[in-house]
Amino acid sequence: MKPRSLFAEHALLPTGWARDVLLSWNDQGLITGVKAQATCPEGVTRATGPVVPGMPNLHSHAFQRAFGGLTEYRGAAQDSFWSWRSLMYGFAAAITPEQLEAIATGLYVEMLEAGYTSVCEFHYVHHDPEGRPYADDANLSMCLLRAAARAGMGLTLLPVLYQTSGFGGTPPSVGQRRFIRSTDNMLALLQKLKPLCEAQGARLGLAPHSLRAVPPDSLREALAGLHALDVTAPVHIHIAEQTAEVDACLAWSGQRPVQWLLEHAPVDARWCLVHATHMSAEESTRAARTGAVAGLCPSTEANLGDGIFDAPTWLQANGRWGVGSDSHACVNAAEELMLLEYSQRLATRQRNVLASAAQPSVATSMTLQAVAGGAQASARPVAGLAVGQQADMVVLDAQHPLLRDLPTPEAMLSAHVFASHRQSALQQVWVAGRVQVQSGHHVLHDAALSGLVAARRQLLENTP
User: Fold this and answer.
1) Annotated catalytic residue, options 61, 123, 306, 326
2) Could you give the residue range(s) of every CATH 2.30.40.10 domain in the chain?
């Protein structure tokens, strides 16, 4: 078949905005040509607005979408992440495979309609409600693979290794029994999932849940086993999300979490340090220099009262970062960018903090950084509009009231991120060269969201 193509008057390439860009891709959805200052060939589709790269979502717990909005009341004298977690465990204890697949399908459709084109699924509900393995040990992982395939969402599947409830090997709680796997059992699961992921075009990695949930020996053995299976596989870990976690790590080891990790694990560009909110300046600089990606989830971090990531220190060391929707209190790629920039403005009392010398427009700068960091964390070729990358694209609606008649594509993208409803200005979303969202609407929108609603209703009926 001949390469497929799209012509854009304005397109955001990894090097910045370009005029009159002809994008071509092959049958596998990989970009084979990017030609600027081109003439639109006869018969080639013209984008109706500026084209920007699709956003990778580098951190998702799909099932948590089902209890969005249900934890927004004070249930303790001082609510925190830890009180929120007890409510989350109730949903994790009750969910069935069918409900997980329905929730994930609906969520992935929501993500696509909000500008995400791939997702890293940090998957830790493995077993039945009694903590027993299913007859097919990959049952719940397969639910996520099917959901992504049905929605047309790119996927990096990250089965979670979870063994203890606290530093020093504290036994897991009853609420964690669906999460627990031995290291050998996890490596066997990865062996089983690898060909299944490859057949779908998904990527497989590993997520040691956190330092409090994975003892040092298990972490070392799991990483060795993963890298024997695939030396390029991504590794994601929750780290330094909460001050209580930092204090507990200090009490256990005499070191802060990121400090301990850097001195005891081979952290490099394969790693994504999810949250990394509470780092000292020295930790931040050392971690950034490893090439690891900081996985930032501004809406969840705000929702849980986690704290504010120190972006200036991270960027001074040329640190890489991307965004994720985590607990899905918000499902919107542009909203995560806006919240990240606003948190930095509040912390520094400055504006346009995440702009750069190369890209003074903050929306453009953030989009390029988040796409590059998200692609690295995904370990998939989704790093933007360049040859060899997947044709994942978002077309902005040039006729949106807040974008119409603006003089530059930078201004249009800025209006999308900071002045629209951050989803209303999306005209099309393409994944691997196929349109998944047209006029802001996914073809499965009604059916997928109805399935999510039904699963949520069932969970509410069966959760204390």
Assistant:
1) 326
2) 4-53+392-445
Is the model more confident about 121 or about 2?
Answer: 121
Fold of the CATH domain 4-53+392-445: Urease, subunit C; domain 1 (2.30.40)
Q: Which of 10, 209, 275, 400 is catalytic?
A: 275
Of the candidates 278, 302, 238, 304, the residue with the CA atom closest to the CA atom of residue 82: 304
> Active site includes 275?
yes
Q: What is the mean pLDDT of residues 196-220?
A: 98
Domain 55-378: what homologous superfamily? Metal-dependent hydrolases (3.20.20.140)
The predicted-structure confidence for 308-337, as pLDDT tens digits, reads as follows 999 999 999 999 999 999 999 999 999 999
Do 154 and 431 touch, CB atoms closer than 8 A?
yes
Q: Let me know: does 429 contact 396? Beta carbons within 8 Å.
A: no
User: Quick check: pTM over 0.85?
Assistant: yes
CA 9 to each of CA 302, 396, 399, 438: distance values in angstroms, whole numbers, following the listed order:
37, 12, 14, 19
List every span in the chain annotated with CATH 3.20.20.140. 55-378
Rg, C-alpha atoms of the chain = 21
Q: How many CB atoms lie within 10 A of CB 388?
A: 9
Flag whether pLDDT at 1 surpasses 70: no
**Residue 435: is its pLDDT beyond 70?**
yes
Q: Report the chain's mean pLDDT, rounded to a whole number.
A: 95
Q: Is 127 part of the annotated catalytic residue set? A: no
The Cα-based distances of 416 to 110, 192, 300, 343, 406 in angstroms read 17, 42, 21, 18, 12
